[in-house]
Design a protein that fits this description.
It is a single chain. With 283 residues, the chain is of the alpha+beta class. The chain has three domains: 2-70, Orthogonal Bundle (Arc Repressor Mutant, subunit A); 86-142 and 260-280, Periplasmic binding protein-like II (D-Maltodextrin-Binding Protein, domain 2, 3-Layer(aba) Sandwich); 161-253, Periplasmic binding protein-like II (D-Maltodextrin-Binding Protein, domain 2, 3-Layer(aba) Sandwich), CATH 3.40.190. It contains nine helices and ten strands. It has helices spanning 2-13, 16-23, 27-41, 57-83, 103-113, 196-202, 216-226, 234-239, 268-280; strands spanning 46-49, 52-55, 87-94, 116-123, 139-143, 151-159, 161-166, 230-233, 245-249, 255-262. The strands form three sheets. Strands 4-3-5-10-6 form a five-stranded mixed sheet, sandwiched between helices. It is globular and about 60 Å long.
Length: 283
């Protein structure tokens, strides 16, 4: 199972170095584990090139199977903990995790639910609900707009939306940008499959032809290294200064920091977390 976790990380990142940083390990042993997995299965899982790692056809099959197996393992762990009387609340966060790491939220929630284990799942741009719709988390801290049915959405606050641009981009000298200012060939592309309303807001150009990105870090890297153009919420613009990147206010409706949960009366634990989060952020 550990090898499968390593494989999924490399497949999702498309790069051993980024996957190693995500897994908090060095690159050589990670590469070795992938080679061992390929030897065990008797096939090549990745096409390797200087630009990164691309899944082969067997690799694509294994990715779907590995995700299903790892998800089943997580569910089994939670059922065992629940049987032992341990309550677990799974919180997903999209993008920067500052909100989920709030000490104030932990303090407020801990006053009444100190015996609940809160687990964090870091999401990527392929799923703005961070696994909520699939039942992998109980609460998602994300950004709207979300058009998916079956979710209860609670707006915590509104933020200014910013364009992230290479400092040498001619648009970086502007004081404000509209969507019409973005170039299709430079606009970052978001993964296919996310919520259409969400993609329509966060992808600068509808017919984007720029680099495909799956995380905020990949987004900023594409801006800095490839001259791409992107849209980011205020917390990224103010909390992630990057030399060589300029953030320009975008003339768009405000971005919404949203708490999402599955539709219907929430459990006492979920309700307490939602209330603690909103109290901490003044909502």
């Amino acid at each position: 199972m550990r090898r499968l976790e390593y494989f999924v990380a490399v497949a999702e990142e498309g790069n051993v170095g980024r996957a190693a940083r995500r897994l908090h390990m060095s690159q050589p042993p990670l590469s070795q584990r992938i080679r061992e997995l390929e030897a065990e299965l008797g096939c090549t899982l990745f096409d390797r090139s200087p630009r990164g790692m691309r899944l082969t056809r067997p690799g694509l099959v294994l990715l779907a199977e590995a995700r299903a197996l790892l998800n089943s393992l997580d569910l089994a762990r939670e059922r065992v903990r629940q049987a032992a009387g341990v309550q677990v609340l799974k919180v997903g966060v999209l993008g920067p995790g500052e909100a989920a790491l709030s000490a104030k939220v932990a303090r407020i929630f801990g006053r009444t639910h100190g015996d609940v284990a809160v687990r964090l799942r870091q999401g990527d741009l392929s799923d703005p609900t961070v696994g909520l719709a699939a039942g992998q988390v109980d609460v998602a801290i994300t950004f709207g707009p979300l058009g998916q049915a079956g979710l209860d959405l609670r707006t915590v606050r509104e933020e200014q939306c910013f364009a992230a641009l290479r400092a040498t981009d001619p648009l970086a000298a502007r004081t404000v940008l509209s969507r019409a200012d973005f170039r299709q060939e430079a606009s970052i592309r978001l993964p296919s499959g996310p919520d259409a309303a969400w993609t329509g807001y966060w992808q600068p150009a509808a017919a984007a032809a720029g680099p495909l990105v799956r995380s905020v870090d990949e987004c900023l890297h594409a801006v800095l290294w490839e001259g791409a153009q992107a849209l980011v919420p205020e917390q990224v613009a103010t909390g992630h200064p990057v030399p060589g990147i300029t953030y320009v206010p975008a003339d768009l409706p405000p971005a919404q920091l949203v708490l999402a949960s599955r539709r219907g009366p929430p459990s006492g634990t979920v309700s307490a977390y939602l209330d603690a989060f909103c109290a901490a952020f003044g909502s």
